[in-house]
């Protein structure tokens, strides 16, 4: 499919158009952005969704916090703040696209066709751009149950930490001695105080 961009007279393929969107958001073209664009195209196609039409029915679980996820965000409009983007950080270039309307879910993961560490960046970039989809991606239909406290919309639960007094949303508290405690008070914070 090609689309004529008005006023410029430039004909871009659908892939190029979406890649441009992802590149603008990310700030540069890199292999990760190309990969994320292709992952998004594959995931949405399997769900029967149009990448040019934003929908509130889409929720994406990303399995890495790297470049590819910026492409997913830029093209689909999912965001962490709207709770339509979830980070399940396995350190794997993979994402699951869920149509909450139909309940259908498709996981797209990147499977490099070469042994680890051998391919240089240039070669990597070329492969990610040009390799046939079935050679570099695994596409599986999966099932995902999104817990009620993870769904978009108003918080289902609020609580207050008995140790620090801060408010805890969405059931993220732990119960210690029958009282709600936030994760940082329960396990120690990621920061130190100065
Ligand atoms: Zn990048
Ligand atoms: Zn606390």
Layout of helices and strands:
Blueprint: E1 2-5, E2 10-13, H1 14-26, H2 31-47, E3 58-62, H3 67-76, E4 85-87, E5 94-99, E6 105-110, H4 121-130, H5 133-136, E7 137-142, E8 158-160, E9 167-169, E10 174-176, E11 179-181, H6 183-187
Parallel strand pairs: 3-4
Antiparallel strand pairs: 1-2, 3-5, 5-6, 6-7, 8-9, 10-11
Bound molecules: zinc ion (2 copies).
Describe what you observe in this structure.
With 194 residues, the chain is an alpha+beta fold. The protein has 2 domains: 2-148, 60s Ribosomal Protein L30, Chain: A, CATH 3.30.1330; 158-187, no CATH class. Helices cover 30% and strands 24% of the residues. The protein has 6 helices and 11 strands. Strands 4-3-5-6-7 form a 5-stranded mixed β-sheet. The protein is elongated, with a radius of gyration of 20 Å. One zinc ion binds next to helix 2.
Short description:
The chain has six helices and eleven strands. It has helices spanning 14-26, 31-47, 67-76, 121-130, 133-136, 183-187; strands spanning 2-5, 10-13, 58-62, 85-87, 94-99, 105-110, 137-142, 158-160, 167-169, 174-176, 179-181. It binds zinc ion (2 copies).
